[in-house]
Specification:
- It is a single chain.
- The chain is mainly α.
- It has a single domain (3-408), classed as Growth Hormone, Chain: A.
- Helices cover 80% and strands 0% of the residues.
- The chain is built from 15 helices and no strands.
- Helix 14 runs antiparallel to helix 15 (384-404).
- The chain is globular and about 60 Å long.
- The two termini are 38 Å apart.
Length: 411
């Protein structure tokens, strides 16, 4: 195969991968702009509504080990296709299954997206071993783009067709992703397009590219005994909890505190997601520059992130500025956390174990955050308490992350 053909094949794989990423946050963030309508229709309390938005993140924490086993046994190609089908099924059940269906369908969505959370980075490491930071940035950018799209579009759609059909309409993106994914990998398995060579370090077997023999895994020191692991756990817990809490309740805060209409609040919250696309692609090159100290980058990101809760408390009328700063910061911080993991772990196997630890604990904290913020709002009758909680999470994140990036100099 010529280099041009190999480049085209790699581009097709990347396009299919990014279409999968487009559906990895959008189904979750689509709830926030219509959560009040869903709560009224299904008679949910604020805490129950917060739990509904937190179920997918709970799945991220609980289902990750099972997802890893399933990917190892069935292969990434089949499992990611099955995950897309499950996202579509969960979307339909959430919309049309009543109150039980809303929670069960959301759990199905969360479990399916967990498979993608684990599988997509494996595909990136396997198929793009020399371009991991760049492709990881694109992956994060597209995830944020999908979140922005559903945050911006769900409320206007709900005005036209109701919240059930508004949420269901995003299933069309899943259908497109599944069709492209199946076509690209059917061609690859048929020999039309060559796949990149897998990385032989505890590689996940793929149905379309079987590994001839079992790789020999090197001995890996326990990541649980490394202080940097737990610093990253705290940093990611603060990051993911603040992100999920903000995603769940920012439209309501903008409506209640900044006086925006429901549609306007959804559009305002979309700014937070849209700017995440920029943050995902800008920060990786900055980290690669030797003149920029990693700690300076992390402190700047933390300050921008904190601008949202503090700004909404002190000057809610400036919500556009605060959402812009925090949107850039939240995606950038996600990329930085896992860049540190990949850099300081010492080996691909250790990186996967460190990443699993960071994600499991971090997403466990994030899973309960929307419900906890809803309960605080219910108890206090306002948004001051929830915003202070978010600010506290981000402050803790900033301290832990600033210390953790010191390990980059020793890596």
């Amino acid at each position: 195969m010529t280099s041009r053909a190999r480049h085209a094949a790699g581009g097709a794989v990347l396009a299919a991968l990014l279409l999968v990423a487009l559906n990895m946050r959008g189904p979750i963030t689509a709830l926030a702009p219509v959560v009040d309508r869903i709560s009224a229709d299904l008679a949910l309390t604020p805490a129950a509504a917060g739990l509904l938005t937190g179920v997918p993140v709970l799945c991220f924490a609980a289902v990750t080990p099972l997802a890893a086993v399933a990917l190892a046994r069935a292969g990434t190609t089949r499992m990611l296709a099955a995950a897309l089908l499950a996202i579509l099924a969960g979307t339909l059940l959430r919309s049309f299954g009543g109150t039980p269906g809303a929670f069960v369908g959301t759990a199905v969505l969360g479990a399916a997206i967990t498979v993608c959370n684990v599988g997509v980075p494996l595909v990136i490491g396997r198929d793009f071993p020399t371009r991991v930071p760049r492709v990881m940035g694109l992956y994060s950018a597209v995830m944020n783009g999908g979140a922005a799209l559903t945050t911006l579009g769900t409320a206007p759609l709900a005005d036209l067709v109701g919240w059930r059909w508004a949420l269901t309409s995003w299933g069309l993106l899943v259908v497109v992703a599944l069709a492209v994914w199946a076509r690209v990998h059917a061609r690859a398995s048929g020999g039309v397009a060559a796949r990149p060579v897998p990385v032989a370090d505890e590689a996940v077997p793929d149905a379309s590219a079987p590994v001839p023999g079992p790789p020999v895994a090197p001995a890996v020191p326990s990541v649980l005994r490394r202080p940097v692991t737990w610093l990253l756990v705290v940093a990611f817990a603060g990051q993911s909890a603040a992100y999920m809490g903000t995603t769940a309740w920012l439209p309501s805060v903008l409506h209640d505190e900044a006086g925006l209409t429901r549609a306007g609040a959804g559009a305002g919250a979309a700014v937070f997601q849209v700017l995440g696309v920029v943050g995902s692609v800008v920060v990786p090159p900055l980290l690669a520059r030797e003149r920029l100290a990693p700690r300076a980058v992390v402190v700047t990101i933390a300050a921008c992130w904190l601008a949202l809760p503090l700004g909404l408390l002190l000057a809610p009328g400036g919500w556009a500025v605060w959402s812009t700063l925090a949107g850039l910061a939240q995606a950038a911080n996600f990329v930085v956390v896992f860049t540190v993991v990949a850099t300081v772990a010492g080996s691909p196997a250790a990186a996967r174990r460190m990443s699993a630890t960071v994600q499991t604990v971090g997403y466990s904290v994030a899973a309960v955050t929307p419900s906890a913020l809803g309960a605080v709002h219910d108890a206090t009758g306002g948004w001051t308490g929830p915003l202070l909680v978010v600010a506290a999470l981000l402050s803790t994140m900033a301290v832990a992350h600033t210390v953790a990036v010191g390990a980059l100099r020793r890596a």
